[in-house]
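Open question from group meeting: does this chain pack into something compact, or does most of it stay loose? Before anyone orders reagents, we agreed to write out a predicted structure and look at it together. Recording both the input and the output here so the notebook holds the full record.
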Amino acid sequence: MFKLFDTVWSIIFLRSVSPKLFKCISFLGFVNLGFSFICNYQIYLYLVSGLTSVLALICLAIIPNTNGAKDENNAKLFRLLHSISVILTMIILALNISLIFILNIN
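Structure tokens returned:
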């Protein structure tokens, strides 16, 4: 992102999009969890839906601290929080992709 666009514009864009992205992911996870209960799907779908929502909320919660660390040039804290956010996002992605292979919905 920073290689394609101006650094200032990229920061503004990411700070605007990231909270919305994690809110959307969390909302969709909760909706999926609700449908899972209504339709009585496999336990794995409950787990993935619940984890998707919780992990997205964690990512959302650490955004202000991540932004603050970047603004204060606290590279160590920024790296830690950003790494946590990236790892949790990758876990969300992997869990949801796994649904394609694990659930046998006819």
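Observations to bring back to the group:
The chain has three helices and no strands.
Residues 18-102 form one domain.
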